[in-house]
Fold:
Amino acid sequence: QSALTQPASVSGSPGQSITISCTGTSSDVGSYNLVSWYQQHPGKAPKLMIYEVSKRPSGVSNRFSGSKSGNTASLTISGLQAEDEADYYCCSYAGSSVVFGGGTKLTVL
Amino acid sequence: EVQLVQSGAEVKKPGESLKISCKGSGYSFTSYWIGWVRQMPGKGLEWMGIIYPGDSDTRYSPSFQGQVTISADKSISTAYLQWSSLKASDTAMYYCARGFGDGYNFDYWGQGTLVTVSS
Structure:
């Protein structure tokens, strides 16, 4: 099992929108609608932001949205805010196991 | 309030054994999965495995199968992650988390347990 591929870093200015991609294979992202996204601030535990490709847990801002096309999933954050600066990890079911992406550091300029 | 409280930081020597814990409260412990995630220093998240305390159904990542043991004691709402012989490469932060649905989405997380293995 290989880690899902994410860009190492992305950046945007407050108010802008950014998208983080997550590329897998036909054995994980491409085969299951079980992609999730986690936000992690330094020194903190991860927080679930999106699950099952596009569902938001209660309490997560609707500025966060998810989608998937083929073997690539995406997380879009609209109306960037300073508090969104964090590491983001995608995650996919891969047939009785789970694989994470390598993580993307989001910088809010 | 759902809470997962993990045991404290550990410093161990290579070859030693270790069992860390994760106690759940505020929900039905036997109705949700508990998963373990490793984060090595300065690195990303790695899925280790999950257990369903209701029937002890356990699934491991191929990367961790045989390297660790995941267990649970439902009578005290506690899950465990165990090593029989630690290596320096096991140095990491370990998180437990509550899994919902089929267990592969983690909605509540513990605070993490830092394990340091050094001679």
Observations:
- The mean pLDDT of chain A is 96.
- The interface with chain B takes residues 1, 3, 34, 36, 38, 40, 45-48, 51-52, 57, 87, 89, 91, 93, 96-103 of chain A (CB under 8 Å).
